[in-house]
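Milestone 3.1: sequence recovery, worked example.
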């Protein structure tokens, strides 16, 4: 759990789980280029990623961005929330950057089948909803975590430019999934950006052309990644990224002509 501010908006980074991947699978086109990043890998050669959610307190509302991988994976989101002093029933809105299962895991209380955030309105990116419902649904994280919210009439679709509060607006950032959304924060002259999976690691900030295996549309994901990195570098936003190592908060800066990630200390 790590707490910071952008203007009058409080941003709390919440850890759920850790996972590691073979970097050659994550970036199939990187090849020998990965040699330069040996020091960013784990001792076993994996690229390590955390699974993070972000709690935003803005304009009197409490908004949770993403709900992690969930209880089956030993996730600790609820402990982190407790440590942050927030009870699940205090969350007004849950918004998903996208509908992959590592962002929707804590929606439903497994014991009761009811929404775990009992009062919340659940905001779903329209493009991802359309993509998921346009085909037959085998059992999946979507059928477990999202479809019940629709049946219970607790869900609302969101598009680009939706004003969540005066300080928070959605930004369509497609490619990782077609409906992928980020949340732009603007408060008291300061800017922030919760970007979901627009980039996954600090390596992506430097190698923005390396295609990622997790991206639905690699070409579109690369285009979006470059555009968002340009924007974040230019406006100096405090960034929250879902799969950087905790707390996953920092800035995109240029050092000696090279774009890099500058994290804030855990
Ligand atoms: Zn993810």
């Amino acid at each position: 759990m790590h707490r910071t501010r952008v203007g009058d908006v409080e941003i709390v980074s919440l850890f759920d789980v850790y996972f590691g991947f073979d970097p050659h699978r994550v970036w199939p086109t990187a090849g020998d280029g990965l040699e330069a990043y040996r020091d960013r890998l784990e001792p076993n050669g994996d690229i390590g990623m955390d699974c993070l959610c972000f709690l935003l307190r803005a304009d009197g509302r409490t908004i949770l961005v993403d709900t992690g991988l969930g209880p089956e994976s030993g996730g600790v989101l609820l402990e982190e929330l407790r440590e942050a002093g927030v009870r699940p029933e205090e969350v007004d809105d849950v918004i998903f950057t996208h509908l992959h299962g590592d962002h929707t895991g804590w929606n439903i209380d497994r014991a009761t089948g009811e929404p775990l955030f009992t009062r919340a309105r659940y905001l779903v990116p329209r493009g991802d909803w359309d993509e998921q419902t346009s085909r037959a649904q085998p059992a999946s994280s979507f059928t477990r975590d999202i479809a019940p919210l629709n049946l219970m009439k607790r869900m609302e679709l969101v598009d680009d430019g939706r004003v969540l509060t005066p300080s928070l607006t959605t930004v369509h950032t497609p490619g990782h999934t077609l409906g992928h959304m980020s949340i732009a924060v603007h408060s008291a002259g300061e800017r922030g950006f919760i970007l979901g999976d627009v980039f996954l690691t600090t390596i992506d900030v430097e190698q923005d052309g390396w295609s990622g295996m997790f991206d639905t549309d690699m070409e579109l994901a690369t285009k979006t990644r470059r555009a968002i990195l340009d924007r974040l570098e230019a406006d100096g936003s405090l960034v929250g990224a879902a799969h950087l190592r905790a707390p996953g908060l920092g800035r995109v800066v240029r050092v000696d002509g090279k774009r890099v990630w500058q994290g804030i200390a855990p």
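The radius of gyration is 18 Å. The CA atoms of residues 138 and 144 lie 10 Å apart.
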